[in-house]
Design goal:
By secondary structure, the chain is mainly alpha-helical. It contains 4 helices and no strands. Keywords: Membrane, Transmembrane, Transmembrane helix.
């Protein structure tokens, strides 16, 4: 029963997080849709571990190294999901900027 409670609380927390992400993008006072790029990281994060689990047999010694690499890559993707909004918050993005003449940089 403890496993089901943990699963329900994790799914509830994920649903609340996605709701706040969509709400933060859809509010007309902000009118910024850059945070939706975080959803790519949410989709990509389980892929390395799923591939490693499918490719590796549990009886050989190389399985441990392959799973550890998959966990390392998954950790990098999750950390990037936290880092990307920080980079977007510090970057001054504007609509009228071009590569040759940018009036936003001061």
């Amino acid at each position: 029963m403890a496993g089901i409670k943990a699963l329900i609380s994790l799914s509830f927390g994920g649903a609340i997080g996605l709701m706040f992400l969509m709400l933060g993008c859809a509010l007309p006072i902000y009118n910024k849709y850059w945070p939706l790029f975080v959803l790519f990281f949410y989709i990509l994060s389980p892929i390395p571990y799923c591939i490693a689990r499918r490719l590796v047999d549990d009886t050989d010694a190389m399985s441990n190294a392959c799973k550890e690499l998959a966990i390392f890559l998954t950790t990098g993707i999750v950390v990037s999901a936290f880092g990307l909004p920080i980079v977007f918050a510090r970057a001054h993005l504007c609509e009228d900027c071009s590569w040759s003449s940018c009036m936003c940089r001061k």
